[in-house]
Amino acid sequence: MNISEISDKITLKIAAEAERLGEKIPYIPDSNGKYTDTDNICWWTNSFWAGMLWQLYHASGNELFRKTAECSEKRLDAALDDFENIDHDAGFLWLHTAGANYRLTGNKRSERRLLHAATLLAGRYNPDLEIIRAWDGQWMPGHDTAGGAIIDTMMNLPLLYLASEITGDPRFGSIAERHADTMLKYMLRPDGSANHQIVFDVKTGLITANPGGQGYASGSSWSRGQAWALYGYALSFLHTGKDRYLDAAKRAASYFISNISATGYVPLADFRAPEEPVYYDTTAGVIAACGLLEIAERVSDDEKRMYMDGAIKILEALETKWCDFDPLTDGILDGGSVSYHEKEHHQKIIYGDYFFTEAILRLSGKSFLVW
Ligand code: GLY
After folding, report:
1. Maximum distance among all alpha carbons in the chain?
2. 152: annotated active-site residue
3. Ligand 1 in contact with 44 (CB < 6 A)?
4. What is the DSSP track for 114-132?
5. Of these residues, 8, 30, 81, 89, which one is catalytic?
6. Distance CA 22, CA 68 (A)
7. 89 assigned to active site
């Protein structure tokens, strides 16, 4: 795999895409294969486009990337104002926009936006259950989901760690750690796999449901959820230095690697689903690859080989079969699956593009830490 060649191809393609898209915020290409604008400014994926642009701005210095990323950040002010539709994914939304801008340029307005978003995320913390609440509303029939949490939230915790770093106030980071510890107790299984969702009774604290969520079923192993756990715990270690988070990330990593070797390093959408139909989720692969590269940086040289090898094998497999570097078409990484039970599978999805780009730039030494 020629990293610098791939990185050049990504840069060329995304520059062409940025010219075409202007202020639009993409998610999944339409039936003509074209990225269109988001129809919901609060949608959790709305900042991966900006995150990719900031990564490429950092790597190349091309002002087009910075200016286009700033458009997304400004448009997201409508989401901050909306308030009601902001949930546990506030980290995804503002780390890749305001957070990236603040980290790379020191922009004061961006700093305020990210602190505002961190305050909303911290406000979702339930001190009795020691969880950050997932979505509002009742999303699991027959259960009070005020006590609901999901593994994906692990990736949003860096917004809280960053808020503590900026303000010098430990309460944001404390909330993040409490949530990470609760997930360690109830979500990450001893073998390193994780359920997607969990619902606690808000009065008794007892678990009332363990929904399979975007995976096959309760008790299964949704591969993107495994990747969120792997990378999420690696990031909690990065921000806190607490060994239990690195151990958790390593456990999730070993589980992930052992599950992808049978399918040529392209993850199935769920590692515990029936043999047929075969649904892959390449986005799980690139998220895990970034997490593996993060772990590789935190362990000794003797230990890092397994994580590096795993990441490189995933990226090679995806680059060979699932990548589109044509500047005239939209989207890089094909083969993504939003959810096991959705009708559509094997699609381009914006977060697949983001994590593929982050992984390639990590390997070329040109990435910066969005998280
Ligand atoms: N955070 C939702 C997902 O991974 O699809």
Report:
1. 56
2. yes
3. yes
4. HHHHHHHHHTTEETTTTEE
5. 89
6. 7
7. yes
pTM surpassing 0.85?
A: yes
The rounded distance, in Å, linking the Cα atoms of 167 and 59 is 28
Return the structure tokens found at 256: 């992930």
Beta bridge partner(s), residue 188: 194
Residue 284 CA to residue 286 CA, distance in Å, equals: 6
Pairing of strands 125-126, 131-132: antiparallel
The residue among 212, 228, 221 whose CA lies nearest residue 294 is 228
Distance (Å) from CA 224 to ligand 1 centroid: 7
CA–CA dist 233, 335 (Å, integer): 25
pLDDT in tens, 136-165: 999 988 889 999 999 999 999 999 999 999
* Structure confidence by residue, pLDDT tens digits, 261-298: 999 999 999 999 999 999 999 999 999 999 999 999 99
Site to probe by mutation for ligand 1, drawn from 92, 195, 228 as the one with most ligand atoms within 8 Å of Cβ, is 228
Task: For a ligand 1 pocket test, name from 28, 40, 152 the mutation site with the most ligand atoms within 8 angstroms of its C-beta.
Answer: 152
Which of 316, 351, 286, 326 has its CA nearest to residue 12? Answer: 326
Nearest atom in ligand 1 to the alpha carbon of residue 225 is 4
